[in-house]
Specification:
- The structure holds two protein chains of two kinds.
- Chain A has helices at residues 2-13, 19-31, 33-59, 73-85, 89-95, 226-232, 247-257, 267-270, 283-294, and strands spanning 99-102, 109-112, 118-121, 126-131, 136-148, 157-160, 164-168, 172-178, 181-188, 190-195, 203-206, 209-213, 221-224, 239-246, 261-264, 273-279, 296-300, 304-309.
- Chain A is of the alpha+beta class.
- Chain A has three domains: 2-59; 73-224, Jelly Rolls; 238-309, Phage tail protein beta-alpha-beta fold (3-Layer(bab) Sandwich).
- In chain A, the strands form three sheets. In chain A, strands 1, 2, 3, 4, 5, 6, 7, 8, 9, 10, 11, 12 and 13 form a 13-stranded mixed sheet that branches.
- In chain A, strand 2 and strand 3 (118-121) form a beta hairpin.
- Chain B is mainly alpha-helical.
- Chain B has two domains: 1-98, no CATH class; 99-189, Arc Repressor Mutant, subunit A (Orthogonal Bundle), CATH 1.10.10.10.
- The longest helix of chain B is centred in the middle third of the chain and has 20 residues, at 100-119.
- Chain B starts with a helix and ends in a 9-residue tail after the last helix.
- Classes of the chains: A alpha+beta, B mainly alpha.
- At the A-B interface, helix 1, helix 3 and helix 4 of A face helix 1, helix 3, helix 6, helix 7 and helix 8 of B.
Chain lengths: 315, 189
């Protein structure tokens, strides 16, 4: 149906429809009874494309459907600029005063946003929130947050974590920004992520999948690890969940939440692996567990809790 | 999801995958190709008027029956057609034309065809579809993200969707494809 087909395809693709568009569409549909049929057919074809795209996104998080080709300078530049320019625009950015939110060490804060989304912010984090008409934007300056995004197709929810970007419509995911990189983990729905300086590489993550970014222009390392993601997010409930993590990694985690720092003075002890669930604000309990399991001496001072392997008694 | 979108979803799943077969079936019944075009078009018009799809047990049979009725009218030189009911007997007869495994196989072939069609898209066209669907971006936002005008986005997406539609529904669109799969269309009557 070539003659109506082309117009119908254009209408099927036009979105979102504002009042004027809707009016024009109604007029177009009224002009010829065959238009309704052609539109339905075009919309049906689009649903088929969408289904395949979603399946691709689900089955291969690492090989995003869109691989950047080196040398596509214009696209790369276009995309980088777009992060700032898209929808709100550079000028728009300044118009909306960002809400600055920071958490102190040990503080875990649940921040309901005006759009119905909720940001659960981890210890020692800083972010800025701008909810504009056309998009919702969070700049994560450092630290970590878990976002439960209220569904709103017309206003994508974007988290800018410096070297990496994540975009969702209605879903739940966490973004962690540290010195050595950014990690995005999806707990519900789908999220698109990409390195900030490489427009071509976009990866679609589904629930239970994560992406780790090390640089602003390289594709992330991705994987599927739903249980590990949930464990890593135990901080939301004020807990640290360990499943085969090293003592060193566990200690680093506790230290992010507490003023009293754990110090391990033994290289072998730091590489021991642990399983357990601990209260995030009770490093002393963790130290006590270690003392029992590994024959460790615990020295508690005002600022530190030192862990050292007991000297083997000389026989 | 609006009613129209829900219907489109259903048509995309249950009707569109059979359009190629239907066109071939009509041609084999010596329906002139200009009429085939009209009949297919009219089928979608009627589908667009459906208030409920709950009663349609076999969408493929429904589609074929509709087309057959229209073909009869066409032969009587009636270019304008009325909506008419389809008898249960006809529907049942056509439903048995296509055993379940055939329909499953057809659906799988259809997914393969879409995947092949998507593979031929330019990077940019692909990105446009992903941004639309997964990220829920508007055309304007996609244009900004790609650093092109809205017109470019619209043309790219339209051209691609038209190509995919052709590949899905037109028997001639991918001759190479049918040759490769060894005439799997033969079962369509």
């Amino acid at each position: 149906m070539p003659e109506h087909g082309d117009e119908a395809v254009a209408w099927a693709l036009r979105h979102p429809l504002d009042a004027a568009d809707q009016h024009a569409l109604d007029a177009w549909l009224a002009r010829d009874p065959r238009h309704a049929g052609a539109l339905l057919r075009a919309m049906a074809a689009l649903t088929v494309v969408n289904r395949v795209i979603e399946e691709e996104g689900a089955s291969a998080p690492g090989q995003a459907p869109l691989e950047a080709r080196p040398g596509r300078r214009r696209l790369l530049i276009g995309m980088t600029g777009a992060i700032a320019a898209s929808a709100v625009g550079l000028i728009g950015w300044r118009q909306f005063a960002a809400e600055h939110v920071t958490t102190a060490r040990g503080e875990i804060r649940r921040l309901p946003l005006a759009d119905g989304s909720v940001a659960t912010i981890d210890s020692d984090s800083a972010l800025r929130v701008v909810l504009a008409d056309e998009q919702r934007r969070i700049a994560l300056d450092h630290g970590q947050a878990w976002f439960q995004v209220a569904k709103d197709r017309s206003r994508p929810f974007i988290v800018d974590a410096g070297i990496a970007q994540a975009r969702a419509v209605g879903t739940a995911f966490s973004v962690e920004r540290r010195e050595d990189g950014v990690e995005v983990a999806v707990t519900e729905g789908q999220v698109a992520v990409w390195p900030s300086a490489a427009g071509g590489t976009m990866t679609i993550l589904k629930a239970g999948q994560y992406a780790r970014f090390r640089s602003p222009d390289a594709a992330p390392v991705t994987g599927t690890a739903p249980a590990a993601i949930e464990r890593a997010l135990a901080w939301r409930g004020g807990e640290i969940a360990l499943e085969n993590e090293t003592v060193a990694a566990a200690v680093a985690r506790f230290n992010r939440y507490n003023h009293r720092q754990l110090v391990v003075d033994d290289a072998i002890l730091s590489q021991e692996r642990l399983i357990g669930l601990f209260q995030i604000d009770r490093p002393e309990d963790f130290a006590a567990s270690l003392a029992v399991s590994f024959d460790v001496a615990v020295t508690t001072g005002p600022q530190t809790i030192r862990l050292a392997r007991k000297k083997s008694p000389a026989f | 999801m609006t009613e129209r979108e829900a219907l489109a979803e259903w048509v995309g799943r249950e009707i569109l995958p059979h359009e190629r077969d239907l066109r071939g079936w009509l041609r084999r019944r010596l329906v002139p190709s200009v009429d085939v075009e009209d009949i297919v078009q009219e089928c979608y018009c009627r589908l667009a008027q459906l208030r409920s799809i709950d009663d349609i047990a076999s969408p493929r049979a429904y589609f074929f029956t509709m087309a057959r009725n229209l073909a009869h009218r066409q032969r009587r030189h009636a270019r304008v057609v009325r909506i008419e009911s389809i008898s249960a007997a006809e529907t049942d007869g056509l439903a048995s034309d296509s055993p379940l495994q055939d329909r499953v196989a057809a659906a799988r072939q259809e997914v393969d065809r879409v995947q092949r069609a998507l593979a031929t898209l330019s990077d940019r066209a692909r990105r446009i579809f992903v941004m639309r669907r997964v990220e829920g971006l508007s055309q304007k936002e996609i244009a900004a993200a790609l650093g092109v005008t809205e017109m470019v986005v619209e043309n790219d997406a339209s051209r691609s969707l038209r190509a995919i539609l052709r590949q899905l529904t037109d028997e001639d669109a991918d001759m190479a494809d049918s040759a490769r799969t060894g005439g799997d269309r033969a079962r369509a009557r």
